[in-house]
Amino acid sequence: MSADGDSWPGTVVSVPRREPVNVCDLEVLTVTPTSATITWTTRSTWCGPVPYPLETDTQLWCSASGAPLRLVHDDPTPTAHHRVHLTGLEPGCSYRFRAVSAGVEARPSLRPTRSPTAPEARSQFTTLVPPPGRLLTTIAVTNDIHIGEHRQGIVLGPLPTSVAPTAQQCDYPQMMVGATLQELHAAGHPVLVVNGDITYGNRPEEVATAKQLLDSYGVAGTDWLATRGNHDHPGRTDPFGETFCPYQSLQSLQDSSGLRILGIDSTKGSGGGWIRDDQYEQIRSVLLADPDRPTLVTSHHPATNHAAWSSPSGPGFMLRSRDRIRLQSLEHSAQGVFAHVTGHTHRMKVNRRDIGDRVHHWENAACAAYPGGYTLVQVHEGGFMVNFHRPDDDRVREWMFRSRWQSLSVGAHIMLGSVHDRNHVVLADMSGLHPAGSA
Ligand SMILES: [Fe+2]
Ligand SMILES: [Fe+2]
C-alpha cells in the first residue's frame, strides 16, 4: 500500500467553505485479496429529490489494523465523486480507514453500508483470501444493460419512481456498456456473459446497437455470449432472436481453460419467467454428455426460492416455482455445475440454494444503473472468487450519482448488497480445468 507517512491527526480539521457539505455515500465497493476500491460523494445538504454535487478534495487515511492511520491518498483536485483504489494490500488482512473531504469524514448512507457489521460503518475492511491453487481462467458477467431505455427505475407516468438522465446522459445505457467493455479489454479480455435485458423493448434498432457494441468486444460464441431477458421478449417479431439466439434455446460456450458456460433463456413475458420442456431437454442433454465438466450456468431470472421471496417485486416476477426446483435438481445431478449467476433484480445478492450443497447462486447487479458495473469470476484450482467492479470513468460516476435516486431513492438500499454479496470466495474442486490458453 502506498503511503506518504503522515499520521492521522485524530480530529477533523474544518476547511472554510461557503455552504455545508454532506460527505456521504461511503462504500467499500470492491475488495480483492490485494486491493480495495472505496468511493464516496460530496453533495448539498438540501433534502430534495436529487441533491446537487459539491466539489471538494479527496483524502484517504489507511493502515493495517493496530497501526496508526496514515495518509495514503491526498488529491486537492475538486470533485464530488470520490474514488480511491488501494493496491498492494495483503490477503486476509484487516485494514482501518478514514475517507475525508473538505475536512469532514465520509459516512455511509445506505442500509447495507450502515449495518453494524458493514466495513463502511466500522471503518474497517478485510481483504479476501484467494482460492487455493493456480488461477485458471476469468469470466466476466454483466446484465440489464437496457439499450434504448430513456428513464431508469420503475416508470409510472409522472410519478417520481424513475430517474431521467440529464441531456448529456441520454445515452447512458451505451455509455455504461462502453465503459465496461473498455475496462474488460484492459483487464485481459475475459470471456463475457451479457445476461439478459440487453434491450429495453426488443426493437430492431436497440438489438442492432447492442450487437454492434458486443461485436466491438469480439466474436459471438467465443468472446461473448448474450442471454435473453424479459425486456428482450418476442412480440409480433423477434429481432433479438434473429440476431442473438432463438426463443427458449440453450446456448453453450467453452473457454480455453475447458470451463463450460450455459446460457438459458428463462423468459416468459414482461416480468416472470419459465423454462419450456424442449429447453430442459437441451440442458439435460448437454449436461449429461459431460456431467463432470466445470460449468457456470447463467439465466436472466434467479432460480432460488430465496431470491423469489426476498425480492420486493415478489415471486410473480421470478422464474416459476416448479422451474426453480426442476432447474436446481438438474444442475445438482451434474457434478461439474459449480455456480449459477442471474440478473433481473438489479441487485447483488448471494442466494441460499434449495437443493444440494454444491451449486453457488447469486444475483448480479445491473450495468445500466446504480450500482452499475460488472462482475469478474476468477476461477482457481481450488475454487472461485466473485468481485463486483464499477468502471473507473467520470461519466459513469456522474450517472451513478443520479441513477441511485430511482424508485423514490429506495432502490439503492436494495441493490448495492453487502460487501460479501459483492465480493466473496467459494471453495470448490476445479481441477478438471487447465490454465486458459494452455494445451
Ligand atoms: Fe432489467
Ligand atoms: Fe429483467
Structural description of this entry:
The chain is α+β, with helices and mostly antiparallel strands. It has two domains: 2-126, Immunoglobulin-like, CATH 2.60.40; 135-427, Purple Acid Phosphatase, chain A, domain 2 (4-Layer Sandwich). The protein has eleven helices and 22 strands. Strand 3 (56-64) and strand 4 (70-79) form a beta hairpin. Helix 3 runs parallel beside helix 4. Mean pLDDT is 92; it is low at 2-6 and 8-16.
Features:
2 domains; Immunoglobulin-like; single chain; Purple Acid Phosphatase, chain A, domain 2; binds fe (ii) ion; alpha+beta; disordered N terminus; six-stranded mixed β-sheet; 439 residues; globular
Total count of domains: 2
Radius of gyration from the alpha-carbon trace, in angstroms:
22 Å
Bound molecules: fe (ii) ion
Largest sheet, in brief, is: 6 strands, mixed
Structural class determined from secondary elements: alpha+beta
The overall pLDDT, averaged over residues, is: 92
Give the C-level CATH assignment of the largest domain: Alpha Beta
Low-confidence stretches: 2-6, 8-16
Instruction: Return the CATH topology of the largest domain.
Output: Purple Acid Phosphatase, chain A, domain 2
Summarize the structure.
The protein is of the alpha+beta class and 439 residues long. It is built from eleven helices and 22 strands. The strands form five sheets. The chain has a six-stranded mixed beta sheet.
